[in-house]
Amino acid sequence: MTVLLDLEGVAAYYGAIQALNGIDIQVMEGEIVTLIGANGAGKSTTLMTICGSPQARSGRIMYAGEDITNRPTHQIMRMGISQSPEGRRIFPRMTVLENLQMGAAFGDPAHFDADLEEVFSLFPRLKERIAQRGGTLSGGEQQMLAIGRALMSRPRLLLLDEPSLGIAPMLVRQIFAAIKEINAAKGVTILLVEQNAFHALRLAHRGYVLVNGAIQMSGTGSELLARPEIRAAYLEGGAV
Amino acid sequence: MAEIDYIAQAKESAIAALVGLALTVPIVGLRTDSSGPDGMTIDVRMLDAVLLAIGIGVGHFMVNLARGLLQQRRRAAKPAIARAANLKSVAYFLGAGALVFGLVLPGLPFADRYVMDVGTLVLTYVMLGWGLNIVVGLAGLLDLGYVAFYAVGAYSYALIASHFGWSFWVCLPLAGAFAAFFGIILGFPVLRLRGDYLAIVTLGFGEIIRVILLNWYDFTGGPDGMSRIPRPDFFGLPFARSSPDGATFHEFFGLEFSSMHRIIFLYYLIFALALLTNVFTLRIRRLPVGRAWEALREDEIACRSLGVNPTNTKLTAFAIGAMFGGFAGAFFATRQGFISPESFTFIESAVILAIVVLGGMGSQIGVVLAAILLIGGTEIFRDLAEYRMLAFGAAMVAIMVWKPRGLLSNREPTVRLGPKPGAGS
Ligand SMILES: Nc1ncnc2c1ncn2[C@@H]1O[C@H](COP(=O)(O)OP(=O)(O)O)[C@@H](O)[C@H]1O
Ligand SMILES: [Mg+2]
Predict the structure, then answer these.
(1) Is the domain of A166 the same as that of A148?
(2) In chain A, what residues touch B310 (CB-CB under 8 Å)?
(3) Could you tell me whether strands B41-44 and B30-33 are parallel, antiparallel, or unpaired per DSSP bridges?
(4) Which range has the top average pLDDT, A84-93, B79-88, B235-244, B360-369?
(5) A85: in domain
(6) What is the pTM of this model?
(7) Does position B85 have pLDDT exceeding 70, yes or no?
(8) Mean per-residue pLDDT for A150-177?
(9) Fewer beta carbons under 10 A from the terminal one: N or C of chain B?
């Protein structure tokens, strides 16, 4: 297995405030890796730093053998990395179809129709709502749209930030099933940020636990699930 | 709350009147007068100031009242989705109607010289509105100095046409290119700024261009402006009674000479230029770059995470908007035959922006309605003399109360769903 994404000692700041304190994360090609941690631990910052906004102040980020630490965001996002950002950030006044077209803006138009069909087969609800404005979708549908939009650029690495946040439990199950399928059927590597540690660890091959901007623990999903301190902090009475 | 609280509103209006008083006393109440025998004296006109302040208070109260009543009515009205669908067909018929009317206007019995002049003026502002709509309405960049590009286009045309004697059809694209170039020069450093900051810098840019035109006497003629700008001809045929170098328009077509020929030609010229702006905008909205403008206006972070380069995307919007402003400027110069910096003051930018905002930010037909209302309206009410601007202001307030998001604020999707969804990526 080759390393697709490699963070070495990455530190990131918002102004003078340090949000990431030298973290190391490795994601192998074809894996689902999850990053769990409490609110404010720095999970979203980790994903945003990979995307170059904010840029890492020290350390190194390698993607597919290339150093992307100091590249501008729009370049990184055209290298086969795609993100469904925190809070989904779909375009509310645009229709579902237009949102998906934005996702494919820099891809080859020749496979637009095929990619669209794949997204619709993954999330049939989106097809039913193709002409509806993004802002009028339910939270779960918006999340499907955000993931679908990220898939339209045919990513090699998909970054997902809390896809289960604020979504009805039934839809959460659907979305996690879709994530699994994206990885298994399309071979897309996935870095999944979650507060819903139970679902995430069951789904992921490996996981990292982030506490106050530093990696505290890592291991396979089932290993971490079995650890008593994880159960105490993130599962029982924690943010399930 | 369904009930309107009159007492609270009256209090609020009283406060507005007091604030108004603080402004009217120094501005209106004290007036320097230097016509008298003993030099400059101060004329105290407190009654005027107080009356104005009371007027402000009453106006404030009425506006709030109207707004409250409208909200009550709106709550009882149809659901939003039905309204949106309605609006769409209304916009469609308005657009088709306006197009046909614009085409046949010169042939209508009442279309005398005055009507054609007003029509041409309205169309100039429709075109400027559509040009600015790309920047403000689609890309969401608040540009308060759009008149700068109008000026650059007008002066480029005047300078090139007078010095080189090239025809309108050569000078027009050059004027547009110069304006676009200025758009890039301005846009490059300032497009990192957001919202208010961008507005202030563009405002300053508009003024700088005007001041340069005013002071670079050798090049632009300074405050005297430039006159004897070549008038347009009909693809080589001049609109004149006779010409030493060949046939004129009326001779070539075997018509009786009439000064209306040129007026009507100018009308159709701006009609075509405006239509070009509109068709271009409608087309580009469906292309990735145009869609990215709109997306950028909605969510810049999401755009960056999709690989959109915000700076370049904004720059194209700015440059293309400027280019259409430049075309309109070239038309203005050839129509007037005379230009001076006075035609390119901040108030022009404000009027064009008002047209875009009143039209509904991004709505093409809304711009037409607003231009007819604001430009046509002020022309028709010219008899009101100095009360014209008052009527203008009142109309703007009324529209903002009645339709706070502009006349036609519903965004049209760029994709129509036919039998084959997803066609035309
Ligand atoms: N834009 C920002 N400006 C300043 N501080 C921020 C910003 N975004 C996040 N932070 C801070 O960085 C820390 C990590 O935040 P975040 O990465 O959003 O955590 P998580 O996603 O794990 O909840 C928090 O202390 C948060 O307050
Ligand atoms: Mg977060």
Answers:
(1) no
(2) 74
(3) antiparallel
(4) A84-93
(5) no
(6) 0.81
(7) no
(8) 93
(9) N
Ligand nearest to the CA of A41: 1
C-alpha A35 to ligand 1 mean position (Å): 15
Please report residues of A whose CB lies closer than 8 A to that of B304. 51, 53, 73-74, 77
CA of A82 relative to ligand 2 center, distance in Å:
17
Number of domain units in chain A: 2
Average pLDDT over residues B253-270: 89
CATH class in words for B87-402:
mainly alpha
Could A102 and B425 be called an inter-chain contact, meaning their C-beta atoms sit closer than 8 Å? Answer: no
* Best of B87, B138, B305, B312 to mutate (most A CBs within 10 Å, chain A): B305
Q: How confident is the model at residue B64 (pLDDT cuts 50, 70, 90)?
A: confident
Distance between CA atoms of residues B138 and B297, nearest Å:
7
Contacts of B93 (CB under 8 A, 6+ apart): none
Alpha carbons B310 and B73: distance in angstroms, whole number:
41
- Give the residue on A whose Cα is nearest the Cα of B308: A74
Cα–Cα distance between B8 and B306 in angstroms, integer? 49
DSSP state for residue A133 in the 8-state scheme? B
pLDDT (tens digit, 9 = 90+) per residue, A102-156?
999 888 889 899 999 999 999 999 999 999 999 999 999 999 999 999 999 999 9
Nearest CA in chain B to A146: B302
- For ligand 1, what atom is nearest to the CA of residue A46? 17
Q: Where are the domains of chain B?
A: 6-75, 87-402
Give the pLDDT score at B234. Answer: 83
**Distance from the CA of B333 to the center of ligand 1, in angstroms?**
55
Residue corresponding to tokens 């007027």 = B55
Cα–Cα distance measured from residue B400 to residue B217, given in angstroms and rounded to the nearest whole number = 42
- Percent of chain B predicted with pLDDT > 90: 40
HEC per residue, B318-350 = HHHHHHHHHHHHHHHHHHHCCECHHHHCHHHHH
Question: Does the Cβ of A45 fall within 6 Å of ligand 1?
Answer: yes
Given a contact cutoff of 8 angstroms between Cβ atoms, the answer to whether A35 and A43 are in contact is yes
Same domain for A71 and A102, yes or no, is no
Say whether both A50 and A163 belong to one domain: yes
